[in-house]
Amino acid sequence: MEKIEALKQFGLTEKEIKVFLANLELGQATVNEIAKKSNTFRTYSYDILKSLMEKGLVIYFIKSGVKYFETVKPEKLIDILHEREDQIKAILPELTLLRAETTEKPKVEFYEGKEGIKTIHEDIIKTKPKEVLVYGNTEKHYEVMQWYFPRYIKERVKNNINARVITEKTKFTKERIGGTNRKELRKTRFFPKGFIFPTLKYIYGNKVAMISLGKNIVGIITENKDVAQTEAMTFELLWKNAQQ
Questions:
Q1: For 114-170, how does the pLDDT look when each residue is reduced to its tens digit (9 = 90+)?
Q2: What does the DSSP assignment read for 110-146?
Q3: Average pLDDT over residues 200-209
């Protein structure tokens, strides 16, 4: 990432970045020198330097009656980020309570690509349900996510999250999904031969995740108690009639 873009992400404006970098290159410098180096009007440069001082990035001192400005060491940027993180952590419980008061309506999150699907799996681990219910095209799912799936299984087992899976009946699923049930805390049943879903669904806690495994890989998490209960009931009906 280029330094200008990185400083934008830090929270500086374009003018602040110009003045900051000019001062950084000059070292101890007057406002006139900084204005000339950054190609900014003197009055604007002073206001910008004042803003940078408020952000803890610039200091000043007076020598022989003249005010000089100097940037802090670049490492200070990391310290400032840590301070901001600590401040947010301190108020996080309060923010969480405030958010909870306004999230009674169903919550829907949309994810794209393999990294998005990875995020869905990480949410399952983070939610830590006693059991996750799964049905759909597990063979295609494993094909798409094989670079990450073993790690997910390891984390699921580590967190003692059981799984019940209903999947298509193929050589792969019988060997890979059905063959490691006890070791991977999983019970597996099968749809009739030739019955293949274009999607995969996870039901866990108060959430339902639907993953489309077509050309454009997308996933949707719906968080709602009633929706999750309905999907769980549907799963139980499928489970009862699925083949062992």
A1: 999 999 999 999 999 999 999 999 888 888 888 898 899 999 999 999 999 998 887
A2: EEEHHHHHHHHHHHHHHH--SEEEEEE-HHHHHHHHT
A3: 96
Q: How far apart are CA 168 and CA 142, in angstroms?
A: 13
Q: What is the Rg, in whole angstroms, of the alpha carbon atoms belonging to the chain?
A: 28
Q: Rounded to whole angstroms, how far apart are CA atoms 126 and 121? A: 9
Name all contacts of 86-95 with Cβ < 8 Å and 24+ positions apart. Answer: none
DSSP 8-state code for residue 179: T
Mode of pairing for the β-strands spanning 186-190 and 162-167? parallel
Question: Where in the chain are the domains?
Answer: 3-71, 78-104, 107-241
What is the CATH topology of the domain spanning 3-71? Arc Repressor Mutant, subunit A (1.10.10)
Alpha-carbon torsion, ordered 7, 12, 14, 19, to 10 deg? -90
Q: What predicted TM-score, i.e. pTM, was given to this entire model?
A: 0.57
Q: Is the dihedral of CA 76, 79, 84, 85 positive or negative?
A: positive
Distances (CA, A) of 27 to 22, 68, 185: 9, 9, 62
What topology does CATH give the domain 107-241? Endonuclease; Chain A (3.30.870)
